[in-house]
Structures are given as structure tokens and as C-alpha cells.
Amino acid sequence: MKDSEPIRDMMQTLAPDEGYDAYCQFVYTDPEGKVTIYEGENNPVEIELGETDRSAELKFTQDADIGLQFWLGELDLQQAMARQQIQAEGPLAKAMQVLPQIEKIHPRAYLEKNGREDVLVKKN
User: Fold this and answer.
1) Is residue 46 within 8 Å of residue 39, measured between CB atoms?
2) What InterPro entries does the entry give (predicted)?
């Protein structure tokens, strides 16, 4: 994901303001987890899993099941935010710029290509 063209495009619009050292963070509950996206020294996009000292300007908090549905392309991000299934923290204008771009980085095609349909949510 971090080497994809859509995520590089997304990060260009998300340059964190002063005081932050990460583009965005996805916080999951039940079970707990974190995915933090930031600019690396040798790569424009790096991903850190788990607890971190990095401070993200944008945070998206959701139940892990909602996060799975989103990342597999089964959930519309704007609808999930309107229903409070995903809570966004940070500048609303940046969050709204990022929404359409995040949806371009779903890993469904990658999983299908590599024979991992077993982890995909079944479409109705």
C-alpha cells in the first residue's frame, strides 16, 4: 500500500501542520490496534503498526469490524462517518479532501490476485 500511486497522491494533500509528525492514524477498537501513516526519511510514505509516539493530525477511530469492512471496499467512508461508525478528529477540511483518496487504496484487488479470497468479506 505504501508504494502505491494513490497513497502518494493522498499524502501530498495531507502534509501535516506544524506540531504533527504523521499524516493520519487509524485507531481500532475491539480488538485494539493502530495504523499510523507518516513521511519516512527514505520513502515519502511509511506505515507504523501498533503504539507509537508519533502525533497524527487526522485520526479516524472505529470498531475493528467497521475498519475491516472499509479496507475491503465493503463500506462507504462518508456514510460510515455520517452514521458515527467512524469518528474523525482533526481539521474537517483535510478529512474531506482525504475521503475520496482513501477509497482508492483498498486492498481487495491485491488479495484476489494473490488467492486470498478467504479473508474477504462476502458481497451480498
Assistant:
1) yes
2) SCP2_sterol-bd_dom_sf
3-state percent breakdown (helix, strand, coil) of the chain, nearest 5 = 35, 25, 40
Q: What span, in angstroms and rounded, lies between the C-alpha atoms of 109 and 114?
A: 9
C-alpha cell at 121: 468479506
pLDDT digits (tens, 9 = 90+) for 21-58: 888 899 999 999 999 988 878 777 888 999 999 999 88
DSSP-assigned letter for residue 121: P
Q: Does domain 5-116 have CATH number 3.40.720.10?
A: no
Distance CA 72, CA 43 (A): 25
Only one residue has cell 500500500, namely 1
Are the CB atoms for 64 and 117 separated by under 8 Å? no
pTM above 0.85, yes or no: no
